Please model this.
Amino acid sequence: MRANFIFSEVWIGLRRNLTMTIAVVITVAVSMALLGVGLMINSQVGLMKGYWDDKVEISVFLCKKGTAMPACNGKAISPAQTKALQEHINNTPGVKGVVFEDEAAAYENFKQSFSSNKALVDATKVEDLPQSFRISLENPDNYQPVIDAMKGQPGVAQVMDQKQLIAPFFNLLNTLAFAALSVAVVLVLAAALLIGNTVRLSAFNRRRETGIMRLVGASNLYIQLPFVMEGVIAGLVGGVFAAVILILAKVFLFDEVVNFFGTGLGWNDLAQTITLTMVIGVVICILASFVTLRRYLRV
Model:
């Protein structure tokens, strides 16, 4: 009987404040979705950094005849210089391994990398691509000393660290994650205020009923429970909508990362994110309801 009464009171409160309840659901959904997206981006950046740390290399491009690079003076690297450079690379501290890539191998890698741009591949010839040494590092974060050791060597046209190429992308992802989390915090605060206003309005509309319940000896918790459950239900519904948004974000956004960068979030990671965001949403709703009731409900 008591349970029936509580649920009937919850239904009455939700029906009386329908528009505000919808506003709470939407705000919770958007805030939890943004919070989840921010957490997913952070996880994605961590996975990608771990994946690429072992694969990032330093490319030492060698001079070709007619190369416009100032270090080459239009001359190609000689076999003796190539051999000396390889010995220099092998003796450089921090170098884990080195692989020589001739023009044919460079062209095959070029075709694989730009397979979607057939016009560019057709316009490029084998002799257009330079020879290079691909250097893997013992510590990918300590790349600068190796780069400095390669610069200025005879026959070296250019030294490029692949990590410098992908660093702007990682910085962009970190910025997006920070922006999503910042907006999520603002929306969470807005959701808490909306929940508080909804509970306050519901308590004001039912002040006569709560006064009668107080007179007949109802406990504070029993009186407050319907109002708290209204907030919890709104939080749960908003969390479900947020979960749908996060699933769509994974399928249509994060799964595409795998095609370009080799690693992406799994369904277990998504399930953990959804669980965390729903728990946070419900806890915020409960806290907002209790704080509002303590201040505005005279029991």
